[in-house]
Amino acid sequence: MNKKFNTLVLMTLLSLGLQAQVAVTITGTGTGGWNQPGNLALSSTDGIIWTAENFEIVADGNMKFSEGGTWATTGGYSTSTPAPGFPTGTVTINEGSNIVGDLGFWNVTYNIATKEYTFTPGTNPNPVVVVSGGGLAADVQMNTSNGASYAKKSLYFPGGNASFKQTSPTTGQWGGAFPDGPVVVDGTIPVPAGAYNAYFVLPSANGPAEYIFAPVVVSMIGNFAGSGWNTDLDLETTDNVIFTKSNWAPVVNPTWTDTTLNLKFRDNHDWTFQFGNSTNDNGANYPNLTGTAKNGVNGGGGDIFIPWPAPNMYNVTFNRSTGEWAFEVVTTATHNVAPTSSAYIRIRALTNGTSHLRIIRTPKRSRLLMF
User: Cβ-count burial of 186 within 10 angstroms (0-12 exposed, 13-18 middle, 19+ buried)?
Assistant: First the structure.
């Protein structure tokens, strides 16, 4: 009985120990986006030393370690670690600066007890696939986690014939119609100008190659009501180049005390590609309502500030090709119609996207019409 009892206790303690083991991940645009619990999961045999092998650092390389998948238990490199915190350093949980890694394939070791980490060069274990042509200045290597399905988001194509190419360990080229198959071996794809997320699946025993070009979603995120730096306000487009929002009447988040509206543009509801001021200074554009954004792979620049309280509504325009943005104030417009012998009409239109107010006057009376 005692032996059985001791065995049961041991198994229970082991079970509780395994359940209590904190999972360690790496989050950040360098591993695919700022989210929890993190895109890269590390593994451990003792709950102290955590490792991952041959993973790819992408985008702008910004990363932090996460213990347990919450922002309160996530940290960057400590003040004792020289910038940019790569390839070695010490983490400060719930604080610290973003670790900025070199792009490519790496191995990582993290000690959860001492908070020390080390990145060492790894090797690419997967076939290399690139997007070629379409007006791109150079071939762009796609990302993969399994060597079969590939993706490259936020590609801006000036326009032209593109193709997917495998460059190693063997070669191949695939094209076809836009925006998706059927696949044409050695073919090209006529890609119109615009911003797209490109997806590709290598041919296998299960079927031929597959691909699709999906339009990039461009949005605004900021301190305005309905967003609070958590929720995106999507813009509209007809050509995947010019993105707009008409008659936007923003309000600062009512629970905050900000005196200006602060925001950025970004792709795909993610910080990997963000667009703000051309400098890193928040509000450097203020009070100007036009500017040119800094691309997210270079840090995204500072926040765009626009006046608050807003003078009225805004027509928002963002050029995904050039990065130019503008907030045009929607003003009241007055139009005159030539008078007649019996009456004259003066129309004052207050445009808010839903209704118009017309003041119609005759020599004897005036009346208001809402429509």
Answer: exposed
